[in-house]
Amino acid sequence: MTTPSLPMTVSMPGMPERVTIYEVGPRDGLQNEKTVVPVATKAEFVRRLLAAGLDTVELTSFVPQKWVPQLGDAEELLDLLGESGTGQRRPVLVPNERGLDRALEKGVSAIAIFGSATESFAQANLNRSVAESVEMFAPVVKRALDAGTWVRAYVSMCFGDPWEGPVPVTQVVDVCSRLMDLGCDQLSIGDTIGVGTAGHVLRLLDALEEAGIGTDQVGVHFHDTYGQALTNTLTALQRGVSVVDASTGGLGGCPYARSATGNLATEDLVWALDGLGIEHGADLQALVETSTWMAEQLGRPAPSRVVRALAGG
Amino acid sequence: MTTPSLPMTVSMPGMPERVTIYEVGPRDGLQNEKTVVPVATKAEFVRRLLAAGLDTVELTSFVPQKWVPQLGDAEELLDLLGESGTGQRRPVLVPNERGLDRALEKGVSAIAIFGSATESFAQANLNRSVAESVEMFAPVVKRALDAGTWVRAYVSMCFGDPWEGPVPVTQVVDVCSRLMDLGCDQLSIGDTIGVGTAGHVLRLLDALEEAGIGTDQVGVHFHDTYGQALTNTLTALQRGVSVVDASTGGLGGCPYARSATGNLATEDLVWALDGLGIEHGADLQALVETSTWMAEQLGRPAPSRVVRALAGG
């Protein structure tokens, strides 16, 4: 029996020619892992991801260490990365103006802010209402744009919320519009607890477009808690989206969701894109080797099915 | 925090109104588990699946016990099931005429045969060539049809083969045509090692239709080895297929694939169908409870993401 071959490439109508993989493993992935990874290991992780050809890698978060001990070493990480950690395709998360100050001091030129579509999660995660959080983000975005920095707005809980249940599409569009009105360059719609299905994805993308936020401004961020992440992603691609958030190995997940399964695994996405003949620039085998190595650092197997299949043999 | 609510229902253009879930857990699932489950437990498993509202349940295989010790109790199982184990929506697998004789003696009125799209797997699984296996199946199908029995033809390795790599679509269509020409009522196209992607699924369905095998005669059977099972399934549904093979809890898998992940989990499929507002008749919570119970019998957690999310809390 030979090694399973990569998927046969057969294109499909309506798909984009190229997809930008927005890798969230070092930030969203490691933030939600129990283990606090040493900064040298994080730098090695990022270097391996870049060597594997990933387009955009979100590096870390300039969040207070007491909030997220897993990412308390943002400055040290950027120092270790040097040149490879700079540029508009190396965003960092900033929670507030203090975080922006820290990021700008380190020469960062792309940031992401992290809003919520629901009041419950805004209170839980940001300790303020949705309106107050938009108010908090306004000067962050303005100052970042003035400094020539690229800005992404994450919106979490766009499909369901663990306290509120299903989230109305109009409510999501309202929050997205308020954040994009600040001047953000890109929106990332997040199904933080993974409950959404394909028709719901289309309805939200339609509603965003009606509100003036076209698919060229939107990235999608799906979690695999209920097994829907890849299906929802490909549905969004057929609807015109071409930026996809994914986490190498499937690292991370939402601490408020009830399952260990987290982000869409980059390798499972790459398998699908390779099969569909969609360009993305990443090398599957290098990603699998990186996930296998990272799983050793974390002391647990990677959730990605592709990694388990290809690394297990 | 509340219990995660079921997905919000939002329909999607081009989907069927109703899907027939063809449950393969008791046969394909248990056949590929290491543990040999007692026959009383199997009967209880089937009863629970039927009570959960599943449409069609493949019960067992009339295969020699020395080939598949896990299913060496087909007669006893049907005895225990009584009335609930009969009818055209309770198929059993038969490998040859001897298996058919045993099935007919027990009053079975639906059977499935199991062919291969590749010579390598035909030799490995059936110990004969593809042509010889079609020859072997011919009298099985004829005698079954003469007895008023419904007949399904599985074709395995329709997308990739562990020895031969990618399998040409023309080769798959040729084998499918030869089996359907015997008079079978339904075809099940299997991605036994889980390598296929969405465009490949569409190309095969197009090619089958050109050869006179319409989507109304086709069921799809995907494995989640590389994370593509649900995506490929929904792609087939949009192309007109309305019969989907799935295994409650994600039980089973192909012993020739390199990963532990096996069949599409019925619960993950049901989550997607519920989200899309597609009728199927099954109750998600009852399926999750059944998988949780079955996982205890097998001494290992269910691979289904929905089960892990809903049963873990």
TrEMBL record, chains A, B:
Residues 19-288 form the Pyruvate carboxyltransferase domain. CDD domains: DRE_TIM_HMGL. One of its GO terms (biological process) is ketone body biosynthetic process. Keywords: Lyase, Metal-binding. Gene3D superfamilies: Aldolase class I (3.20.20.70). InterPro entries: Aldolase_TIM, HMGL, PYR_CT. This is Hydroxymethylglutaryl-CoA lyase. The lineage of its organism: Bacteria, Bacillati, Actinomycetota, Actinomycetes, Micrococcales.
